[in-house]
Design brief:
Helix content is 6%, strand content 48%. It is mainly β and 193 residues long. The chain has one domain. The strands form two sheets. Strands 1, 2, 3, 4, 5, 6, 7 and 8 form an eight-stranded antiparallel β-sheet that branches. Strand 1 and strand 2 form a beta hairpin. It is globular, with a radius of gyration of 18 Å.
Length: 193
């Protein structure tokens, strides 16, 4: 009886679907497309959001016909506020998502389509600031983030090599050299800098 009362409360007050279950992605009727990035080499990725509570939403990705949370695990891992979602680049399209998700740090994801593998590669970061520059080479991408923390170094550089599971992070007092790299500045709407 108590379980039924809790379920009725969740459905009526919290506006959760009656089929809600822990750990599963629950797509609600209020699912709205935020942005779709199409790469020039055939990849397509869409960011959607739903389940609004105050200034937060649950953000999900749709790619290859599958819809998943932007972060794995519980649905609340993908609940974010102050979220910026944008497609970057003209020759090559990339998807950048950043916002406050599960911590008081800025968390983010950068997606780049790899046509040889027919897959979007994913670079993750969690820092005090949003990314300001993106460096691209065919085999690697780097995200440059101003260091607003207590560590030495003016910048945090997060790197991803194609096909490698781990991202690397290093501190630097200067920006990386631009020779051989395509460099994209990252800009944010007013209020999200």
């Amino acid at each position: 009886m108590i379980f039924r009362q809790v379920l009725v409360y969740l459905v009526l007050v919290c506006q959760l679907p009656a089929t809600a279950s822990a750990g599963k992605l629950r797509l609600s009727p209020d699912l709205k497309e935020v942005i779709q990035c199409d790469s020039d080499t055939g990849g397509k990725i869409t960011v959607l959001r739903h389940h609004q509570i105050q200034d937060t939403h649950v953000y999900v990705l749709r790619q290859h016909g599958e819809t998943t949370g932007v972060y794995p695990g519980e649905e609340d891992n993908s609940r974010g506020s102050l979220v910026s979602v944008q497609c970057l680049g003209s020759k090559e399209r990339l998807l950048l998502i950043s916002g406050e998700f599960t911590s008081n740090y800025m968390q983010g994801l950068l997606f780049r389509y790899q046509p040889a593998r027919k897959k979007w590669e994913r670079l993750e970061f969690a820092e005090r600031e949003r990314a300001c520059l993106l460096y691209l080479k065919p085999e690697q991408m780097r995200l440059v983030i101003p260091n607003g923390g207590y560590e030495a170094g003016k910048y945090i550089i997060v790197r991803k090599f194609n096909g490698k599971a781990r991202d690397t992070r290093k501190l630097s007092d200067g920006l990386p050299k631009t020779g051989g790299w395509q460099v994209l500045p990252v800009q944010y709407p007013a209020g999200l800098e």
